[in-house]
Amino acid sequence: MPTIKDVAKKAGVSPSTVSRVVNNHPRISQETREEVLQAMDEIGYHPNVIAQNLVNQTTNTLGLVMAPSTEEAFADPFYAEVLRGIGSMAQKNGYSLLLITGDEEGGELEATLRAVRGKQVDGLLLLRAKKSDKLTDKLNEMNFPFVVVGRPEEEDKNYWVNNDNVQSSKELVEYLINLGHNKIGAFIGSEEYIVDQDRLKGYKLALKSHGIDYNQDYIVQIESGKQEKAYRFTKDLLNSYPELTALYGIDDRIAYGAIKAVKELGFKIPEDIAIVGFNNNPLSELIEPALTTVDINTYELGRKATSLLIQVITEQVTSYCNDIVPTDLIVRESCGGKND
């Protein structure tokens, strides 16, 4: 059976360095850590995790706090892709994952604090950013390591990784405007989630920058069951405001529902109604017509958030910071434009 000395010889480091990597010592560089982990994998060395955790009072486990419910979360392709990024980085650094969900805010808070107080996790990834978030307030009060995937209200008092949703949304709507659209309906999500409000802000800024009046009547709020409700609400919106020439779904799943409704109403896409989405879910290039959307690089969001959390846990990072992952406008057939 391989030993720490065998790993050290394979990686070209001292046994004490291998021990530090196994125990997630903060003063080991990422490059050395990866070399030692690769050597461990190649020779089949597996540390006694249970004994190691008892000594270090760690679990080598990261907790994932999901959206309202498991059912809703796994219906959204965003979570599958962000989990792929999280899993890749966690595995590379020797961490397991624990899924934490709650059917409502109180349930989420209770389940998360139970995992923290029970020492089931070394740190948390919060896969959402909410207004007046009781969970982040409590975790900060407890001085427990966590990273938010999203933009928290108190940006300078949290670790977080996000896109610039305001600017990306503004650029998407401006693309529609430059195609000649000035009557643009928008389907937004819950006022509780900051990402939805940031994307709405970008929509408003785009209109303002082109001298177009904002019309609240063109805005439809969808809090859950996005695709099904978007299908119903699209018909209501277009029947009430036939002057609309474009629709913006703040989530691709909303846009899917809108496309189905527009087709059933007998309109052509994009000749009569242009439709755009956000997130670039895998299905977006397969539907008919293929959906113009914003790629938020979800995998990279998960990877960078996990890397930051591990650095916080191992005290490689000790001052609040954030990382902005760039986005890409993906132009397809649903808005009639051409991708440069």
TrEMBL record:
Keywords: DNA-binding, Transcription, Transcription regulation. SUPFAM superfamilies: lambda repressor-like DNA-binding domains (SSF47413), Periplasmic binding protein-like I (SSF53822). CDD domains: HTH_LacI, PBP1_MalR-like. This is Transcriptional regulator. Gene3D superfamilies: 3.40.50.2300, lambda repressor-like DNA-binding domains. PROSITE patterns: HTH_CROC1, HTH_LACI_1, HTH_LACI_2. The keyword DNA-binding applies. Residues 3-46 form the HTH cro/C1-type domain. It comes from Halobacteroides halobius (strain ATCC 35273 / DSM 5150 / MD-1). GO terms for molecular function: DNA-binding transcription factor activity; transcription cis-regulatory region binding. The keyword Transport does not apply. Residues 2-56 form the HTH lacI-type domain. InterPro entries: Cro/C1-type_HTH (IPR001387), HTH_LacI (IPR000843), Lambda_DNA-bd_dom_sf (IPR010982), Peripla_BP/Lac1_sug-bd_dom (IPR001761), Peripla_BP_I (IPR028082).
